[in-house]
């Protein structure tokens, strides 16, 4: 018999004995003479006098302890649990102190150890899922930011008309008292800039919109707006004017150098076969009239700008030193700002890799209503369609304020 079983048996024997003893004490007390002295002695003996504990209080204390012990013994699996805990505790202490089991050394029965790790999902990897950041690392797409320098108009109509004042009146010298008759008046023209529609029609599932860890609708709206902006920027440079704006690189060249022609743009040779040359850059800048020079900028692809920076004069110095402004290097060429336009052609035979212009006078962009988004959750069940539209147009309106650098063949 185990020690716990023996204790349980003793407790079970104590309880009837205490009950019987309490009955006998009560009977003796009832049969004693009822004088004051005798009754006071019995009370001190049974209940105590403050200095010594009485028989009854001792019996009650024993009964309370017995009840607590009985409750512990009556717990489900009480004996087995206590013995198992003691065994486990001793085994743990033995292993931590000596690396042994049940008091035996390391060469005895081995301990079964199951290691957890994060690189295997069933062994714990499922418990260490990565935290999803709210940040989205976005790729940057290059564009041609012509809106920064061009003239931008707005209209609520389908097009705008621009008056072209590109002719001059006639005048002549005459002798005193003589007149040569009527002289020619200046002629004017006009250019119509129609609006063209650009659209996007993305669809996103309802689950993606409601369960994504980021605001998918706002994120995608920004992506669509950025794509529309880059698409129209491409048209401002290279568009053919059919259903889209007309780009300034699509106009034909003047027939003769320095002789103005409407709807054509003067092209200055780079001075080298299929490449950029320093002399051609200087000739390009000098071809623009002085009235347009204060607002003029260079526009080119970033790789073309790299080729330009490598140009050297006869003294072996670079023609375009880096200029610092407020401690920052600024992109400039021959003292003028440079704008990167990813839609400009690269160096190559017959290409026009560089533009030099006062775009605020040379090119006009016309916008209709702002970007419009129609949210349609009905047409395609389970999807939300975001039909996005923008109306815009663009064209060269001053053919004297823009020059192109063209590579010779």
Describe the protein's topology.
Layout: H1 3-31, H2 36-47, H3 55-73, H4 78-98, E1 151-154, E2 159-164, E3 189-194, E4 196-200, E5 203-205, H5 206-211, H6 216-238, E6 266-273, H7 278-286, E7 297-300, H8 302-309, E8 323-325, E9 328-330, E10 332-333, E11 336-340, E12 354-357, H9 359-362, E13 363-367, E14 372-376, E15 383-396, E16 402-408
Parallel strand pairs: 1-13, 6-16, 7-11
Antiparallel strand pairs: 2-3, 4-15, 5-15, 7-12, 8-9, 10-11, 12-16, 13-15, 14-15
Helix pairs in contact: 1-3
Please outline what is shown here.
By secondary structure, this protein is of the alpha+beta class.
If you had to describe this structure to a student in words, what would you say it looks like?
By secondary structure, the chain is of the alpha+beta class. The chain folds into two domains: 3-74; 146-169 and 188-408, 2-Layer Sandwich (Major capsid protein gp5 fold). Helices cover 32% and strands 21% of the residues. It has nine helices and 16 strands. The strands form four sheets. Strands 1, 4, 5, 13, 14 and 15 form a six-stranded mixed sheet that branches. A hairpin with a 2-residue loop joins strand 8 and strand 9.
């Amino acid at each position: 018999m185990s020690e716990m079983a023996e204790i349980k048996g003793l407790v079970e024997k104590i309880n009837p004995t205490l009950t019987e003893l309490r009955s006998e004490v009560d009977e003796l007390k009832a049969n004693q003479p009822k004088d004051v002295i005798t009754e006071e002695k019995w009370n001190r003996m049974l209940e105590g006098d403050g200095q010594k504990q009485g028989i009854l209080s001792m019996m009650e204390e024993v009964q309370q302890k017995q009840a607590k012990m009985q409750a512990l013994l009556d717990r489900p699996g009480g004996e087995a649990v206590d013995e198992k805990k003691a065994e486990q505790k001793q085994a743990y202490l033995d292993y931590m102190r000596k690396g042994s089991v049940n008091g035996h050394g390391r060469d005895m029965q081995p301990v079964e150890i199951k290691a957890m790790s994060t690189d295997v999902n069933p062994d714990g990897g499922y418990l260490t899922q990565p935290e999803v950041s709210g940040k989205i690392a976005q790729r940057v797409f290059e564009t041609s930011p012509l809106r920064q320098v061009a003239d931008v108009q707005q209209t609520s109509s389908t097009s705008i008309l621009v008056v072209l004042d590109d002719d001059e009146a006639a005048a002549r010298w005459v002798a005193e008292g003589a007149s040569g008759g009527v002289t020619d008046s200046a002629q004017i023209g006009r250019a119509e800039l129609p609006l063209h529609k650009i659209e996007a029609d993305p669809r996103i599932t309802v689950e993606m919109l409601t369960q994504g860890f980021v605001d998918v609708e706002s994120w995608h709206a920004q992506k669509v707006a950025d794509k529309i902006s880059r698409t129209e920027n491409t048209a401002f440079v290279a568009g053919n004017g059919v259903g889209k704006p007309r780009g300034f690189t699509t106009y034909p060249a003047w027939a003769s150098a320095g002789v103005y022609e409407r709807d054509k743009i003067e092209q200055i040779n780079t001075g080298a076969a299929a490449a950029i040359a320093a002399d051609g850059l200087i000739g390009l800048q000098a071809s623009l009239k002085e009235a347009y020079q204060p607002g003029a900028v260079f526009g080119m692809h970033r790789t073309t700008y790299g080729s330009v920076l490598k140009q050297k004069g006869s003294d072996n110095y670079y023609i375009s030193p880096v200029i610092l402004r407020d401690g920052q290097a600024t992109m400039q060429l021959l003292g003028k700002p440079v704008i990167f336009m990813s839609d400009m052609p690269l160096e190559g035979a017959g290409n026009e890799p560089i533009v030099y212009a006062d775009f605020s006078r040379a090119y006009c962009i016309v916008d209709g209503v702002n970007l419009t988004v129609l949210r349609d959750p009905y047409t395609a069940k389970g999807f939300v369609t975001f039909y996005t539209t923008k109306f815009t147009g663009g064209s060269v309106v001053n053919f004297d304020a823009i020059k192109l650098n063209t590579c010779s063949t």
